[in-house]
Specification:
With 592 residues, this protein is α+β, with helices and mostly antiparallel strands. The protein has 4 domains: 194 residues, no CATH class; 158 residues, GAF domain (Beta-Lactamase); 61 residues; 139 residues, Heat Shock Protein 90, CATH 3.30.565. Helices cover 61% and strands 13% of the residues. The chain has 18 helices and 14 strands. The protein has a 5-stranded antiparallel beta sheet with strand order 3-1-7-6-5, with helices on both faces. A 5-stranded mixed beta sheet has the order 9-11-12-14-13. The protein has a two-stranded antiparallel ribbon with strand order 2-4. A hairpin with a 2-residue loop joins strand 11 and strand 12. Helix 3 crosses helix 4, helix 3 packs antiparallel against helix 6 and helix 5 packs across helix 7.
Length: 592
């Protein structure tokens, strides 16, 4: 209960999986990026007096303690850090730069680790946002409290301290508010992108709209061809002015267009953003195609920012942003925030492409698998026919030889012929078992509620009919039901009960049990058993643990049982000793 309450205090309404993803990513980042970790620790602990190595060990210890639910070392460290900054005269912005450095380092790492699962990535980013918000709040509170204490001590000697403290307080609150607001935007936008990944056109339109809303003013999003020389159809444009937005969208070409030699090509080829804080509107208009001149004249572009759209380390598109005279120029801070949005957009676009081709790839793979199964069936039956023909000839001619010339053959020759005929019968049985094994693999699985007790009773009755001289005491627990394919359940019981019947044949008193223990069913007998040193081979085809003159069989039955159980998503195990019977526990992977 303590761990849960502490975590809830830090991460409100976040799932345990998202919190775990956050901690895993942080720990993997520190372990795999020692140099980066040391740099952050040096900046954060510049006034601590500890070595970089000790700072690194302390940071990892605090992270692991927090993962276990004990946040007190981490909170104490943050409060001490805030107080130390205040006493040393450092501005609060120093910690803000450290926090930004950590955020800039961990987000790409988190994107790389969880990029294939947008919802997990989004949830982990939300946890990161709360982590950053609360960390900044603790440091700011301690910093301001220390500043207040210092001010109270020196108020008589330093009358200017009050104004400085208020300025620092305002800076701290402004920095914290901006950081929290941006994290909220990033997490919300990532959710919005994830919700439309099934429609690439709608996704591109949403990307253009969100970048226009949060960075401003006009935004064009274009995807690149595989060779990076063209922009694909379906580019999107958005502007905060409705008429300008409509005019820009009307200019978008439905055809593939050459990339050209401007800023877009530079970004596409280098993967590096380009920021032109101040540009000459007339020069921008002159370099654009004539069709764009009316719209650009309306905007009067004075600042330009171009960004790469990336996915899995490759530039897949270009984002072009521009502002007019009525707004301020783009800054490096704008570029950083825009890249954070673009990274999430690139991931969502890559997922949209995967989804668009998924159905086709699944259909192709399904068709290929069905064709392979048909070929396998045809091969199995062909082999069966080709093998049976010579076997029938061998058996037929051997029988004819015994019938026509048996009196002319001595007893040893007759035994040879009998052994030949027995061998052909065993071979025919083996072919049947192999075909059954192949057929089990290919049968479609149809789960229904099956009365296993009733099927077991029917199988035992058939065994008694075929071997009426045997006296076997059987115990079947009534009303054993499973959610499984009834045809395959019968095959499982025919093999398990058939083995139990066979391997108890040399017992004076034979017993067979069918029942349930916990979530598992079982078939048990008091027969011959076998050495468990060979248990790993029990469910492999052609594996036998008794000589053929002791017990007949092909070694296929338990392999068939294992295949059926595996297809149902269940498990099967065996417990046995020589001379003390065998116990098979199994389940059909039943789901509610």
């Amino acid at each position: 209960m303590v761990v849960g309450s502490v975590r809830e205090a830090w991460f409100t309404s976040r799932s345990a999986a998202a919190i775990g993803d956050f901690f895993d990513t942080c720990e993997q980042h520190f372990e795999a990026n020692e140099a980066s970790a040391r740099t952050l620790e040096r900046m954060a602990g510049a006034t601590s007096g500890l070595s970089v190595e000790q700072q690194g060990r302390d940071a990892r210890d605090r992270l692991r303690a927090a993962r276990g639910g004990d946040w007190s070392p981490f909170e104490d460290h943050l409060r001490a850090l805030g107080a130390r900054f205040a006493r040393s005269g450092l501005e609060f912005a120093a910690w803000y730069s450290v926090a930004n450095s950590f955020f800039d380092a961990i987000v790409p790492w988190m994107t790389e680790r969880l990029g294939g699962e947008p919802r997990r990535l989004t949830d982990a980013l939300l946890v990161l946002g709360e982590y950053m918000e609360r960390s900044m709040a603790l440091i700011a509170t301690a910093y301001l409290a220390s500043k207040d204490a210092l001010r109270a001590e020196a108020e008589a000697r330093h009358l200017t301290e009050r104004s400085q403290l208020e300025r620092v307080r305002a800076e701290a609150h402004e920095a914290l508010a901006q950081s929290v607001a941006r994290l909220e935007i990033l997490s919300r936008t990532a959710h919005e992108f994830a919700e439309v990944t099934g429609d690439q056109g709608a996704l591109l339109a949403l990307v253009a709209e969100r970048l226009s809303d949060h960075i401003g003013e006009g935004c064009t999003v274009r995807l690149l061809s595989e060779d990076g020389e063209w922009t694909e159809p379906g580019a999107q444009f958005h502007h905060q002015d409705r008429e300008t937005c409509e005019a820009g969208r009307a200019l978008l070409s439905p055809q593939r267009q050459p990339l050209g030699d401007g800023i877009a090509r530079q970004v596409a080829s280098t993967g590096v953003p380009v920021l032109l804080a101040q540009v000459d509107p007339a020069a921008v208009i002159a370099q654009a195609p004539p069709a764009f001149h009316p719209m650009l004249t309306r905007i009067v572009p004075t600042s330009v920012l171009a960004l790469p759209l990336k996915a899995r380390g490759r530039t897949i598109g270009v984002v072009s942003l521009l502002r007019g005279r009525s707004t301020s120029a783009y800054t490096v801070d704008d570029q950083r925030f825009a890249m954070d949005l673009a990274d999430r957009a690139g991931l969502a676009i890559d997922n949209a492409r995967l989804i668009a081709t998924l159905e086709q790839r699944v259909a192709e793979r399904t068709a290929s698998l069905e064709a392979a199964n048909r070929e396998l069936d045809a091969f199995s039956y062909s082999v069966s026919h080709d093998l049976r023909a010579p076997l029938r000839a061998i058996d037929g001619f051997s029988g004819a030889l015994l019938a026509d010339y048996g009196t002319q053959l001595d007893s040893q020759a007759q035994q040879y012929l009998d052994r030949i005929r027995d061998s052909t019968k065993r071979m025919s049985t083996l072919i049947d078992d192999l075909l059954n094994l192949a057929r089990v693999t290919g049968l479609p699985l149809e789960r229904v509620r099956v009365d296993l007790s009733a099927i077991a009773t029917e199988v035992i009755a058939e065994l008694r009919r075929l071997d009426p001289a045997r006296r076997v005491e059987t115990h079947v627990v009534p009303e054993l039901t499973v959610l499984a394919d009834p045809r395959l359940v019968r095959i499982v019981l025919e093999n398990l009960l058939g083995n139990a019947w066979k391997f108890t044949a040399k017992r004076d008193h034979t017993e067979i049990w069918v029942g349930r223990e916990g979530s598992s069913l079982f078939v048990r007998d008091n027969g011959a058993g076998f050495d468990l040193r060979y248990a790993d081979k029990v469910f492999r085809p052609f594996q036998r643990f008794h000589r053929s003159d002791e017990f007949e069989g092909t070694g296929i039955g338990l392999a068939t049982v294992h295949r059926i159980i595996e297809r149902h998503g269940g498990t099967i195990t065996v417990e046995t000793e020589p001379g003390r019977g065998a116990l098979f526990r199994f389940s059909f992977g039943e789901r509610a």
